[in-house]
Design goal:
alpha+beta; Alpha-Beta Plaits; 26% strand; globular
């Protein structure tokens, strides 16, 4: 199961935060089924404006304090964008 609460907590804490001189811009990804539905998430976030020298593993260590991380990966669009997925271990 995805953990929406962990994604919300991470977004509240990290959106607008400076990391290696860059301001993080964090949003929920657009849902595949209904792209017009905003602010919905299945426990996933898109992090934009990330310094490309930050590895996926390093960023996973940062966000893991907000919940269990299922996946952290660079998107195909940009090296400065990371997709994060949290999951509920209850």
């Amino acid at each position: 199961y995805y953990d929406i609460r962990a994604a919300q907590n991470a977004m509240r804490a990290l959106h607008g935060r400076l990391l290696r001189g860059r301001t993080l811009d964090i949003h929920y990804p657009m849902p595949k089924e209904n792209p017009k539905k905003e602010n919905t998430s299945e426990g996933a976030l898109l992090v934009n404006n990330l310094d490309s020298s930050i590895s996926n593993e390093e960023f996973q260590r940062i966000v893991s304090s907000y919940g269990e991380v299922r996946e952290v990966r660079r998107t195909m669009h940009e090296n400065s964008q990371i997709y994060i997925e949290f999951f509920d271990v209850r």
